[in-house]
Write a structure and sequence with these properties.
about 15% strand; alpha+beta; globular; about 80 residues; 2 strands
Amino acid sequence: MRSDTKQDNYESKNNLIKALKKIKKQTDKIIIVITHDFFILPIFDSVVLMENGKMIKQSTHDKLININAWYAEGYSTSTN
């Protein structure tokens, strides 16, 4: 059995992003993705931040980077 490596994880994330972009391009449906991984969030039109089961903020990725320190730090950590 092969163990996961950082490169495998990166490739899996990139494959997921490519698939989501393709789905977005081919449909006018709403796509809801629930994740703790900030890496994929920039491709979405809207990001909803939840805390203790309640929505605390909804905006675009770019705006959240500028107005929410927790979000900005999480994104920065996930992309390094």
